Every structure is written in structure tokens, then in C-alpha cells.
Predict the structure.
Amino acid sequence: MAKVLVTGGAGYIGSHMVLKLLEAGHQPVVVDDLSTGIQSFVPKEVPLHAFSISDADKLSQLLQAEQFDIVMHFAAFIEVGESVKKPEKYYHNNFINTLTLLNVMKQHKVKHFIFSSTAAIFGEPHYTPADEKHPKQPLNPYGASKLMCEQLLQDMDIAYGLKSVCLRYFNAAGADPAGRTGYRTANASHLIPIALQTILGQRPHLEVYGRDYPTPDGTCIRDYIHVMDLCEAHLLAMHHLLAGGESRQYNVGNGQGYSVQQVIDTVKQVTGQAIKVVDSGRRAGDPAQLVADSRRIQQELNWRPHYPLLADIIEHAWKWENICCRADQG
């Protein structure tokens, strides 16, 4: 059994990770300032410390009191558009607060770290699917802040022997199949939740940004990975580090792309309902295709997605959205 500090453990991916750790017999402890996380997403048997990782004193007290084997770091801001408008917010939270966390870990001799990174570090794709060697030229402060953290982790390994695994997500989607947690935000910016919320009448329409891309149906193609498969990658990365493994960086995706129109069609099939769609022009910075080459993590950690089908991802997300809708209605 490992004792695991999960920062951002009340958020979307973090809350799924807590469930995965419990199911695997480990002991998660959550730190989350609840600025975007939701307290009820953390199981009652899991300790929740409601403060920001920017608070080095509170972090130090926690690491002094608990003998953590590893830290999983999910406490980041993730909205690309907002990062362009408020770059200082993203550099401060995503980079400076990560530096604070790593410094406290160094002081308390916690030597293992799993970092929630992103495919946004690559920028405009030079080729697809993108492997780990793809050029790293982020197009926005969100991606740049994550790339800075990856460089910091490489330097911390050289200087102090702090071993890390950086997992570069593509499009995390879906929800816990048992309906215990899922994606929950007032202003969803991801395609699948927006489509489902449109069906439920919580949004007036779904906007499609561009139908003139060089793809089979003219809409952008993205790689969607089930959130629980992503958590499985974290679990395997933890096992790798605790067994004495070296620092690694992995791309984590399905390796199969689906277009915006394919997602819309599959949402209709899964729900049996129509979606009001409004076509708009292209958004700046949207590549035509972005798909992961995940062969490295498959070969080295024996990771395989359990839910590779888009229909399964959407079915689990649909179940969760209905749970949320019923809760909102009282």
C-alpha cells in the first residue's frame, strides 16, 4: 500500500484518481483549495485538506505529519482561452505553485512525483500521431506553463534525484462508469459535455468551429481518452517509480482520432436525441488533427485503454450528466 498525496483531488481527473487508488488498495490524501474542485467528489473516508498548494507552510506541516510515498499533481488551471487573456494567472498557479510543491517535497525527502501534463506542449502538430519526440512549441500560456514544469522536473531529477513521470494528456473525457464522479463545471469547454448539456436544455446550441479542414468530413479530429484509462496510466506510472524506475515522459491517448461531426453523430446514437448545432468559423490555433502515439507507454508500462470506443466514453458521460441534472432539479 502506498500513501499518495493527490493535489487537485476534488477536481475532474483528480477525483477519478482517488477512486482508482482506493480500488487498488492505496491510501490517498487530498489537497484542494476547492476553487474549482467539489468537496462532495472526495469520498468521506479520504482526508481532504482545503488549502492552496501555494501555502508552503501548510504543505510542509502536512508532509511532516504524513509520510507520503509519492505525489500526484492535478492542481492546475486548464482553460486555453483564459490563459491567453490572463497569462499571469496560469504561470503563477501552474508553474510557481508547482515549484513551491516540489521545494516542500525536497525538504521532506519525498522523491516521487507524477505530473499532469498536456498535449498542448506540442503546439501546431508537425505530424500525427504525435510521439514523445514531437517538437515542443506551445501556442498559449497554458501549454507553455506545463512545458516549463516538465523542464523543471528534469532539472530536479539531475540535481536532487527527484524521480517523475510526466503524462501528456490529449482529450480526457467520459466519467466513472459507476456514476460516482465526473466532469462538473458551470462553463464546460469540452465538446462531449457541451453536446450532452445541449440535449438536456442547459445550453441553447452546440457550436462547431469550422467545417473546411482537410479531414474526411471537414471538422477537426481529436483523440479522446476515457478518464479512467488515464487514471490507470497514473497508477502504472506510480508502480514504475516506486519500483525504482527512472523519470519518464509519456503521451497518453487512444491513438485513434474522432472528428467533431463523428462525436455529434455518436452522441445522437447513444442518447437517441437530436442536438441543435450552429456552424461558426474556425478558431485561431485549432489544428486540423491532433492524435496521440501512445506506443511508448504501452510498451514500457504495459498500459492499454479499457474503454477505447467513443460510444462507451459518451455513454458514461451521459449517465453522469443525467445524475447532475437530477441533482440540480432537486
Q: What stands out?
A: The chain has a mean pLDDT of 94. The radius of gyration is 19 Å. The first strand starts at residue 3 and ends at 7. The chain has ten helices and 13 strands.
